[in-house]
Amino acid sequence: VMGLSLKYWGLIQKGWRYGVREPQKIIHCFKVGMALCLVSLFYYLRPLYEGVGGNAMWAVLTVIVALEYTVGATICKCLNRAVATLMAGGLGIGVHWVASQFGEMYEPLILQGSVFVLAAAATFPRFLPSVKAHFDHGALIFIFTFVLVSVSGYRERELFTLAHHRLSTVAIGISICVVTSIFFCPVWAGNELHNLVQDNMEKLADSLDGYVAEYIGYDANEASNNTLVGYRSVIDSMAAEESLVNCARWEPAHGGFNFRHPWKEYLELGASLRSCGYCIDALSGIVGDTKAPDFLKERFSTFCVKLSSNSSAVLRELVVVIRTLVKSPKIDLRLDEMCNAVEEIQTALKALPNQKNGSNETKPQESSDACPIVIPFDGKGETDVCPVVIPFVAIVQLVTLSSLLIEIAARTEKIVKSVNRLAEKATSSELKV
Amino acid sequence: VMGLSLKYWGLIQKGWRYGVREPQKIIHCFKVGMALCLVSLFYYLRPLYEGVGGNAMWAVLTVIVALEYTVGATICKCLNRAVATLMAGGLGIGVHWVASQFGEMYEPLILQGSVFVLAAAATFPRFLPSVKAHFDHGALIFIFTFVLVSVSGYRERELFTLAHHRLSTVAIGISICVVTSIFFCPVWAGNELHNLVQDNMEKLADSLDGYVAEYIGYDANEASNNTLVGYRSVIDSMAAEESLVNCARWEPAHGGFNFRHPWKEYLELGASLRSCGYCIDALSGIVGDTKAPDFLKERFSTFCVKLSSNSSAVLRELVVVIRTLVKSPKIDLRLDEMCNAVEEIQTALKALPNQKNGSNETKPQESSDACPIVIPFDGKGETDVCPVVIPFVAIVQLVTLSSLLIEIAARTEKIVKSVNRLAEKATSSELKV
Predict the structure, then answer these.
(1) Of A337, A304, A316, A349, nearest in space to A211 by CA
(2) Which chain B residues contact residue A40 at CB under 8 A?
């Protein structure tokens, strides 16, 4: 019992911390409570109750199911519910009329057959991802309303009254949902998406800086481990992004976004952010064990740090672009700096084999048959040239790191393109309106 | 109109192809139709209809909402619905009784207050991912039943009858769901998960082979582009995996899986498969443009192909292990081969600087101050040593490819560990039962 209660205590604490971190979600809970109180007034006020013939529970159910966290999701569900109820109600009455023409004998058969066919037909599209994203709820409500109207019509002769009550209760529920969702502390899916993308960019920049710093060896304090693996949440945010994009497309104009805001572009932007994240993941595997000699590391660290910090500077500048949705003049500058850093690191790679007479004094050399890359040991004057084969393996890591950084820079450029396209489309859509 | 009808025609064709590819989903549609026909019998058979006091629609609603594609999801939803209905029904009756003690005046206030508090309290856990995965539906049903019982009790004095009807209709709906789901062409989430993981492994192996083949330059036919990007669906399959794992844990013993089958291990296995996929993604970026001279590529291709084909052989062997859930004796052999290939490629990397007198005849050498890696041009006898700096850049790609392949091999080893642990736990859980 003690253990169980401790476990629950831990759960409550976790929930509390979560609530403090995201007060918006607590507010949502109160909104649900408020909307339900509103809708349950139907039970208390007699005229309202009589008006819908005791079917007030449909309104309750509508509020419970359709009131979602974001405005977009709520509107999507409400529209689904409204359209599906209308369509299925009409179809149900139609099928019921047709069936009634065939006489008492065949009526149930025809009704059952139509239920079977329509239920199967409406279930199938739910498997298609594009339909599921927007119309899943609609398909369910369609089936339910159809069965309700067409079949229970056989029993209750007041079919139109039933259909009418169902429609009006659903309409009441929907209006309560939409009003609560939009006018009390609204959470816009568009805003959330916007912030998510910005956060993701910052996380990528932090991770990139962090890993290179870890490799170089300075600033490797344990506290930054959290920022180090920030890229992982970027990689895992695909599902959240997709559902937010789907919701945002249903939202009316709000804040800086108008109705025609290019939400679809965010999907592509998210994909390019993730592809950058994959590279950082590969990098994280390679950074693990350092083998390169200090001298070389030091020499290369400047280039690596320069390239990675330039890449992350580009990412951070992009955060500003996304926030304002206006192309920043600085971004081209930063991009140029990044490209310069790429060129520098490539030059450094080319110069790698010449390291032996690089920073130290020039030395007399033996002519050797096998001529591996020769790394002068730190302070020593004369180094023996031939047997030093291991350093090349050490260089492998440096080379890999550099070319992964170059690849990351290339993918950052793609992100820049996505962001620019997004900013352009957003501006042009504003001009149109 | 023409364009619209063409679009719909395309959609229908797409749906048809989808249906042919996955007949199991078509069968599910028919199952839904069948279950609904069964439940709507309540409307036609008078004694059944009277038995639940005209509340047969709750049974319909239960079937529509709770009958999911996989057995596990159906059971999860049904259990959620049953427990939530019971709990909320009991609580609702209790709250109603307490409120009725305070007299006509305060009753609605207390009821409204309890609705507000409970709705808010039951909405909050839905934000926590661990709760959402298993009990999301339960929370909704809890709120709904509570509102229904506690509030409508104020109006209809036959509270117990209402609660009883709701319980029995939900029970009828649930039993129809479970029977249809388990006894007619069941789709087990466990099986689906099992197949998904195997498919993913094969896709990784195909992609890996494909990219190395593309880099080497042979077998680069366009048709294989589909298998090339197979790793992408591996990367994107996290959400599907998680939901399948959540469903599979609710399933009774079936086929080769018993109730205690270590489903959670699949999550870790999936994560290590994805991390391998990230590396392949990084590889795909680097493979793009080939700069290495043919001679070197040829020499290295043997090592790269050997390592990648060994890695993919390990993955393919793991598919067999997963399929049978018995540790294969071959796997250690394959793993050894892979490790050997890793060592070979490392040796080859070490030997890289010695390339100049590698495969060709030994040549007299000038003693040079700067001694870059010298690559003999294909047929030429005498090569001038000093100015050939570009080839080192060419090697950069080879080096990166090799070390990414080594990293992929390391991640493959992690996959092997995950699979072995899974196989072990599966065997031991079988012994326990």
Answers:
(1) A304
(2) 111-112, 115, 147, 151
Question: H or E segment at A89?
Answer: helix A71-100
Answer yes or no: is the ipTM higher than 0.90. no
All residues at 6 or more sequence positions from A361 whose CB lies less than 8 Å from its CB, including other chains: A381
Using the 8-state DSSP alphabet, how is residue A387 labeled? T
Distance between CA B385 and CA B136 in Å, rounded?
71
Q: How many other CB atoms are found less than 10 A from the CB of residue B410? A: 17
pLDDT, tens digit, 9 for 90 and up, residues A3-25:
778 888 887 888 788 878 888 88
Q: Position A411: which residue type?
A: R
Phi–psi pair at A307, nearest 5 degrees: -65, -45
A116 to B37: CB separation less than 8 angstroms, yes or no: yes
How would you class B370 by CB atoms within 10 Å of its CB: exposed for 0-12, middle for 13-18, buried for 19 or more? middle
Tell me the C-alpha distance between B160 and B155, whole Å: 13
Give the pLDDT confidence of B323-363 residue by residue, as tens digits. Answer: 888 877 888 888 888 888 888 887 777 766 544 433 333 33
Say which residue the tokens 């390291």 belong to: A355
| Contacts with B238 (C-beta within 8 Å, 6 or more apart), sequence order | A236, A238, A239, B270, B274
Closest CA to A237 of A286, A201, A270: A270
Chain B environment of A350 (Cβ under 8 Å): 389-390, 392-393
Closest residue in B to A408 (Cα) is: B282
CB contact under 8 A, A396 and B399: yes
| Residue of chain B with shortest Cα separation from A125 | B15
B257 phi and psi, to 5 degrees?
A: -105, 130
* Contact indicator for B230, B203 with CB cutoff of 8 Å: yes
| Helix pair A390-432, A189-216: axis angle to 10 deg | 160
Contacts of A151 (CB under 8 A, 6+ apart): A111, A115, B40, B43, B60
- Identify all chain B residues contacting A104, using CB atoms and an 8 Å cutoff: none
Do A281 and B279 make contact, defined as CB atoms within 8 angstroms? yes
Neighbours of B2 (CB within 10 A): 6
